[in-house]
Design brief:
- The protein has about 280 residues and is of the alpha+beta class.
- The protein folds into two domains: about 100 residues, Phosphorylase Kinase, domain 1, CATH 3.30.200; about 170 residues, Aminoglycoside phosphotransferase (APH), C-terminal lobe (Aminoglycoside 3'-phosphotransferase, Chain: A, domain 2, Alpha-Beta Complex), CATH 3.90.1200.
- It is built from eight helices and nine strands.
- The longest helix has 22 residues.
- The protein is globular, with a radius of gyration of 20 Å.
Length: about 280
């Protein structure tokens, strides 16, 4: 189970004492997730009581946590179905327990799926467009954690073992694609806050309809088309005969709310390559 920091009922009750969301009735650890400790908590005795998710951040840079808290709260208050960060009585968004930072967020309905059908892909596209629109006036920039310098460093780290395991052609593909991507400039594309990691385990569904987006800890400022490319690679592409139909379904949902500009449409095939390269080197 993904609980690295154990909490007792008295620990959680003490945390809740600084919130206006009621008193603890029950809690349980959440098995999903690999980087943080997560708990479902249930409260009562207040108008805003209910079911929440309590997260303890285990590995993240504490200096970046306020950005993610403000971003999620902004998106939740601008029409996106995503976790809303609960404010403490002093209006802060983070607490400290056992020397670690944590937060409490609203608990969304729905569940993750291992694979999406075309109707679900369309709904996912709509949700991503809603995220981009909701975040369009979020004015805190953050650089990409997987930008050009990171990519160059990662390729250097994995090149030798890639050649050893997969052969010289794989090594040439890796270095030539890196060189090509470093020659591309995307500054003219519409940009803003993007999710950056919208794999199937970060979007919830109720039937065919997306019910919420979670896990914003790769969010940063980048072209919206980059987010589309990452998500298409993660959700729609299966390297099968139906891939184009699946891509079209996602794009129909996205463009029903935010039509692409011509330059975005032109850039998308190249950004799909960039997204695939980033994923490849992060898994080698």
């Amino acid at each position: 189970m993904s609980v690295y920091t154990e909490l007792s009922s008295s620990d959680i009750s003490a945390i809740l004492a600084n919130y206006n969301i009621g008193t603890l009735t029950s809690f349980e650890g959440i098995a999903a997730g690999i980087e943080n400790s997560n708990f479902f908590i249930n409260t009562q005795g207040h108008a805003d009581a209910g079911r929440f998710v309590l997260t303890i951040f285990e590995r993240m840079d504490e200096t970046e946590l306020p950005y993610f808290m403000r971003l999620m709260r902004h998106l939740a208050h601008h029409g996106l179905s995503c976790p809303d960060v609960m404010q403490r009585r002093d209006d802060s968004l983070l607490f400290e327990v056992h020397g670690k930072q944590g937060c409490i967020v609203s608990c969304l309905s729905g569940r993750t799926l291992d694979a999406l059908n075309e109707a679900q892909l369309r709904s996912s596209g709509e949700s991503l467009a809603q995220l981009h629109l909701a975040g369009s006036d979020f004015n805190e920039p953050r650089n990409s954690p997987t930008g050009p310098n990171w990519l160059t460093e990662k390729v250097g780290q994995v090149l030798e073992k890639t050649i050893t395991r997969y052969g010289e052609d794989a090594g040439f593909l890796l270095t030539s694609e890196l060189e090509f991507q470093r020659s591309c400039v995307w500054d003219s594309l519409p940009c803003g806050v993007i999710h950056g990691d919208l794999f199937v385990d970060n979007i919830l569904f109720e039937g065919e309809k997306a019910s919420g987006i979670i896990d914003f800890y790769y969010a940063h400022t980048a072209p919206y088309a980059m987010d589309i490319a990452i998500t298409l690679n993660a959700q729609a592409v299966q390297l099968g005969a139906s891939d184009q139909q699946r891509i079209d379904a996602f794009m129909a949902g996205y463009e029903s709310l935010r039509p692409l500009q011509p330059e975005e449409r032109d850039a998308l095939p190249l950004l799909l390559r960039l997204g695939a390269l980033r994923f490849w080197v992060s898994r080698l």
